[in-house]
Amino acid sequence: MFFVPFLIMFREGLEAALIVSLIASYLKRTNRSQWMRSVWAGVIIACLLCLGLGWFINETTGEFPQKEQELFEGLVAAIAVVVLTWMVFWMRKASHSIKAQLHNAVDSALSSGTSQGWALVLMVFFAVAREGLESVFFLLAAFQQDVGAQAPIGAISGLFAAVIAGMAIYWGGIKLPLQQFFRWTALFILFVAAGLAAGTVRALHEAGVWNHFQSIAFDFSNVLSTHTFLGTLLESLFGYQETPSVSEVGAYLLYLIPVLCLFFSKPKPSPLSASAANPAQ
């Protein structure tokens, strides 16, 4: 399970890098580069908080008995589903006006009198911490499904690639097709979240909390076994099971069908994006 943590961390890291680069570029363009120390302070504090929270949860959950461990894994997977879904639709809505929103937030932070530095620190902290906390809950769910080294290696590689891409965008002036990138990765993430939704039901059943509709929905063990390369890949990416229960299939479809309908519907433009499209108003 290398690719999914890699893609999630690359996407989340790239979002954070874009936010920081937009703030840094705006400060430089408006001759306020002296506030970059506050920006980096916010970034560092947010990273330390996310790392500390992830380490604490990962270290303490190993002490749970088996049933409580399964229950915790189910709850983490459910949180990851909510967080990933929110992330996709927030970026879909905010992508057209995020630059204007950040510029307004910087101006507001730097007009707060004697607390200008702390206001900017907090603004950057919350922006980066949001991306980091989203990653923490997804990675906790991913690591619990795969105890090997591939998941953490994928996550670290994705974060490193995001940092390199962010530096290239800021210092090198490289233009990436970000709208297409975020659209296709968002679609991929929704399928990943659907697999996590089915995994939530499976974990809750193993914890003894959910015992309904546990008959086998279908048996693909002779067609596409999880012991084959393709089956293992689908299991790692989308939570594929060769003999899922009716409740797992139901959770998968009840999540995926509505969110895909919402995803492909036309988003309503935010006021900032509308004003940007019509500057004369």
Please explain how this structure is put together.
The chain has 281 residues and is mostly helical. The chain is built from ten helices and no strands. The chain has helices at residues 3-29, 36-61, 66-94, 98-109, 116-145, 150-172, 178-206, 229-238, 246-264, 271-277. α2 (36-61) packs parallel to α5, α3 crosses α5 and α7 runs antiparallel to α9. The radius of gyration is 21 Å and the shape is elongated.
Short descriptors:
0% strand
Tell me briefly what this model is.
With 281 residues, this protein is mainly α. 75% of the residues lie in helices and 0% in strands.
Write the layout of secondary structure elements.
Layout: H1 3-29, H2 36-61, H3 66-94, H4 98-109, H5 116-145, H6 150-172, H7 178-206, H8 229-238, H9 246-264, H10 271-277
Beta-strand percentage range: under 5%
Number of strands: 0
Sheet with most strands = none
The geometry reads as elongated
Query: Helical content, roughly?
Result: over 70%
> What sequence of helices (H) and strands (E) makes up the elements?
HHHHHHHHHH
How many helical elements? 10
Any low-confidence stretches, pLDDT <50, length ≥5?
A: 272-281
Distance between the termini: 50 Å
Radius of gyration: 21 Å
